[in-house]
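R.M. (postdoc): so does anyone remember the format we settled on? I'll just put the structure tokens first.
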């Protein structure tokens, strides 16, 4: 006899996707995450498509994964989805050094980030308000 199944952490009208260890600083990734927070999924995808930030392609891929999870795993309507949450977490930091003049060295930090996107299905009446 195993332990009972863990309860679902999200609500029944939500789905989530997580991308871990993205090679960008959390500060830069959060700028792109702010761009899509609270928007309808179609508008968020369009914004990411035309964003000039390098990391926007990875964020778009994560958002598409969250949409696919909502559609296939939780039977949610794709047209009624909104980006409920998009948050960024710190991951590892690779530390390197660069040789400088007179036998010195300076540190280079190469940070990594985690990205979590939660999409939520909303009723059409809420959008009009």
């Amino acid at each position: 006899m195993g332990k009972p199944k863990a309860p679902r952490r999200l609500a029944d009208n939500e789905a989530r996707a997580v991308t871990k260890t993205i090679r960008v600083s959390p500060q830069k990734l959060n700028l792109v995450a702010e761009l899509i927070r609270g928007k309808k999924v179609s508008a968020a995808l369009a914004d990411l498509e035309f964003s000039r930030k390098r990391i926007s392609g990875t964020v778009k891929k994560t958002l598409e994964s969250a949409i696919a999870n909502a559609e296939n795993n939780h039977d949610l309507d794709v047209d009624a989805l909104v980006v409920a949450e998009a948050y960024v977490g710190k991951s590892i930091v690779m530390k390197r050094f660069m040789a400088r003049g007179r036998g010195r060295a300076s540190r280079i930090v190469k940070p990594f980030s985690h990205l979590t996107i939660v999409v939520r299905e909303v009723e059409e009446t809420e959008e009009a308000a």
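R.M.: ...and that's the designed sequence above, right after the tokens. Also worth knowing: The chain has one domain: 14-122. Helices lie at 26-36, 41-49, 56-72, 124-128.
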